[in-house]
Write a structure and sequence with these properties.
heterodimer, A: 83 residues, mainly beta, Ubiquitin-like (UB roll), 4-stranded mixed β-sheet, 4 strands, 23% strand, globular, B: 570 residues, Rossmann fold, 3 domains, 8-stranded mixed β-sheet, 7-stranded mixed β-sheet
Chain lengths: 83, 570
């Protein structure tokens, strides 16, 4: 069976979820019950890229991290940029 | 400086005229009061037709009033409390209309009480939001909590900043001042052009004026360069400096395109209906059974970024009483303070515009607390500095370029400061710098307390390798090594300024300091490792979160080599 392992970014709870044909990653999480209905979430791959709306079958066999939306917050002060 | 400059970074988040015309009465003299007032002044509260009233008993300023905060100064002790607060607030924003009277205004009433003041204020009724500082936590809500007064401790200043920021945010919601949907960020329709030209950014900085004319920044030899609109030379103005050699020039498209401005009706963005104050109870600690000292021990820190988060995090740290010296190395790349920094960067005021930022921040922190020993380093932290910061740095006999020689000296000093540091406060405006700091702190085995804020959303990650806490790459993914994009005062997002507001900065900067203090006073096993703010929704939640994955995380440092190679090719 083709599965994705979802990991809750806040609790480290894992769950292996079967992938249904044509589902996005978000739909797979929702239908699995991994996140309580009505809760906002966002899914990242190991590289940190948000993959919510990508086809789930693209991530078969991988572990994806399920966390809060908006985790790509960047701003703050000024120490970066091209040297 | 115009009000438009000062509030330009919050224009997409709040309806400025509602804030400027609001009438608000504040009860209580709790620890959150000075922080609340600083946030309101920075927002532009009561700066037009509105009024802010401090409903205080007219008493003397006591030494306890000037402790754990940085609005009142030690020299205010013995003077009248109301007058001192009005005087200090006027320095934050001279336009604020503020007075002192025990009787409230008509309009909204809020309270930042001490434990002893809660019952008396509650009897007066009609308090829309309470902002309280408890020994280990904060409470915000339409109803107060009654707790005994245990006196201040080492967390009090940071908790007070968080409480003040959240209370000011609740006021924005109660006013219906939160923008929903698109907002006009400029008072005139314009074309924005990125202009690259050797030295143009440095010349624009030296011009020391708002929006200098583009033509005046070019060499006379390049006089033939013109921007033509409708057949005529346009009055292009530099409105943002990207770096020393790049600026953003704004070109007006003509009066027929004006949608708002002098003599025209202002365009008010679509905004939310007033919303009741949320109830928020938050602590930096995942479990509350700890005993904290009243004062900080001797500590050594490096803080990267002296912008919105850095100024709040370092100021609340400086406002915390200390038994020993707090040595703080402040690293920031920006040259000077700009008018549009003032809506949130609380260490600076009107008179500071044009002055060097890192150096002035260091001076201000020592002014808040002489026990804070500061060192300012104006420099960039980029992936190519990683090896120098974690490895050996060979002496070089002679470097002919004085700029490169100076940069190398600063890098060397930063390397030494990091080796001596107990922890690093990460407050930059880009992920690539965070990645470098994560590699360095993981290599040195010291905690990294990272903050980030965009508009009303904020995050704090507490990464302590000694506590098996996740590193920043565990949280955010390896791709942060390849994300140099900055989101800060000097940058723009598409064609609009990056939105930024004081309430989020006070909360996130305060959380960073609270978590850092909890770590450095021996409570790493109980500190919340991840904190998420969604201020527009009235949500602030802390999580202990799981330990790092012992299989995965050690590879993050090994991956650093590959990440740096990929980043250099990105």
């Amino acid at each position: 069976m083709n599965t994705i392992t979802f990991r809750n970014a806040l609790t480290d709870m894992n769950q292996q979820v079967p992938v249904q044909a044509g589902q996005t990653v978000r739909q797979t999480v929702e239908s699995s019950g991994f996140i309580a209905p009505g809760n906002n979430f966002s899914v990242r791959d190991k590289d940190g890229q948000i993959v919510d709306e990508q086809p789930a079958d693209r991530f078969v066999g991988q572990m994806l991290s399920v966390g809060l939306p908006g985790d790509n917050v960047v701003g703050g002060g000024a120490v970066g940029g091209a040297a | 400086m115009s009000a438009a400059d000062r509030y330009s970074r919050q224009r997409g988040l709040v309806v400025q005229d509602l804030i400027a015309d609001a009438r608000l009465s504040v009860y209580g003299t709790g620890k959150a009061l000075p922080y609340l007032l600083q946030c309101l002044a920075a927002l532009g509260f009561a700066a037009r037709h509105g009024r802010l009233r401090l409903c205080l008993a007219d008493r003397e300023v006591l030494p306890a009033d000037v402790a754990h905060q940085f609005l009142l100064r030690p020299e205010d002790v013995g003077g009248r409390l109301g007058a001192a607060l009005v005087h200090r607030l006027s320095a934050v924003d001279p336009a604020i209309a503020v007075d002192v009277d025990p009787l409230p205004l008509d309009g909204m009433r809020i309270a930042t009480p001490t434990a002893a003041e809660v019952a008396a204020i509650a009897r007066q009724g009609d308090v829309a939001v309470w902002g309280q500082v408890l020994p280990l936590s904060i409470h915000i809500g339409p109803s107060p909590v009654e707790v005994p007064d245990d006196g201040p401790n080492v967390l009090t200043a940071a908790l007070a900043a968080i409480s003040g920021g959240l209370t000011a945010q609740a006021v924005l919601g109660l006013l219906g001042a939160l923008v929903r949907g698109p907002a006009v960020l400029s008072s005139w329709v314009e074309e924005r052009l990125w202009v690259s030209y050797p030295g143009i950014g440095r010349r624009a900085t030296l011009a020391n004026t708002d929006a200098p004319a583009l033509r005046g920044l070019l060499d006379p030899d390049d006089d033939g360069f013109e921007i033509i609109v409708h057949g005529r030379a346009a009055d292009a103005r530099v409105t943002a400096i990207v770096d020393g050699d790049t600026v953003v020039a704004s070109v007006p498209l003509g009066p027929e395109a004006v949608v708002a401005g002098p003599g025209r009706a202002a365009v008010r963005p679509v905004h939310r209906e007033p919303i009741a104050a949320p109830t928020i109870d938050w602590s930096p600690l995942a479990t509350g059974d700890v005993v904290l000292p009243e004062r900080l021990p001797q500590i050594r820190l490096v803080m990267c970024g002296a912008g919105a988060l850095g100024s709040w995090a370092s100021a609340t740290l400086a406002a915390t009483p200390a038994d020993g010296t707090v040595e703080l190395c402040v690293v920031d790349m920006d040259d000077t303070i700009e008018a549009h920094n003032l809506n949130r960067q609380i260490l600076f005021d009107l008179e500071d515009v044009g002055l060097p930022k890192a150096r002035l921040a260091a001076q201000r922190l020592t002014g808040i607390n002489p026990m804070v020993g500061t060192r300012a380093l104006q420099m960039v932290i980029a992936p190519q500095h990683r090896d120098a910061l974690i490895g050996e740095m060979a002496d070089q006999d002679y470097i002919s370029d004085p700029d490169i020689a100076a940069q190398r000296m600063r890098l060397k000093e930063l390397r030494e400061r990091l080796r001596e540091a107990d922890a690093v406060l990460s407050c930059p405006d880009n992920q690539q710098t965070r990645w470098v700091l994560n590699v360095v702190t993981e290599s040195l085995g010291i905690p990294l307390v990272n903050g980030a804020v965009d508009g009303f959303v904020g995050r704090v990650h507490v990464c302590d390798p000694r506590d098996d806490g996740r590193c920043l790459i565990c949280w955010l993914g390896a791709s942060i090594a390849r994300q140099p994009e900055r989101r800060s005062c000097t940058d723009i997002l598409g064609t609009a300024p990056v939105p930024a507001i004081v309430t989020s900065a006070a909360v996130v900067g305060g959380i960073q300091t609270a978590a850092l203090i909890a770590l450095l006073t021996g409570h790493a096993k109980k500190v919340g490792r991840f904190h998420a703010l969604d201020a527009a929704r009235g949500e602030l939640t802390g999580y202990r979160a799981a330990d790092r994955d012992p299989v995965e995380c050690p590879t993050h440092l090994l991956d650093a080599e590959e990440m740096m190679a990929r980043a250099s090719h990105a």
